[in-house]
Amino acid sequence: MISFKGNHSPKDVTLFAVFFYVRYSVSYRDLEEIMQERGVDVDHATLNRWGVRYSPAIAAKAEARKRPVCSSWRMDEAYLKVWDKWVYLYRAIDKYGDTVDCMLSEVRDEAAATAFFEKAIGTNALPEKVVMDKSGANLAGLTNVNIYLLLTGCWCSFIDMVQVKYLNNIVEQDHRFVKKLTRPMMGFKAFHSASATLDGIETAHMIRKGRLNQAGVLAYRQFMALAG
To answer: At the top level of its lineage, which domain of life is listed (predicted)?
Structure first.
């Protein structure tokens, strides 16, 4: 259960605000006005703190409850701005469009790609195939994973690496949901807050896709249930 100790607003109000922000295209100032119209007086700075504090915890709960993905993945990066610097959001979905994992990185290189694949495999089963674009860094990152499998005696679990751009259209289309929500945010001010907010956005997107196997339950109710 996620602790709301020290939070002076009711749990339901807090979760409603966090869900609304990570699910719809609004800024914190927009959300401040929306909350005021519903009789809740809370400023945008507090809303920001709620998002940064609770989004990662709720995302971790969703990760533990989501249905398994299939063994064929599509991987790509999206670009986002933190302050005045471009950063990279590594994302993977399976061939049916279910979210595998995501990771925000300040750099786009072999080490970052390796870290992403290790994270994605750690929260899911080993894939049989990963489709990506022509990025040499991503290829090197997945090659590092295969080398590790070889050194640990798991050579029969080698991951098939496919670099065909048109096969990756599905993940590029999936980026649009994230970009649609981050556009009104007018750029993030800090890397940690960007990472936390994106955890929440990906969780809302996962719920939207039906990953928690709760057909007929309102998305907000699913999000709220994750907080315990």
So the answer is: Bacteria
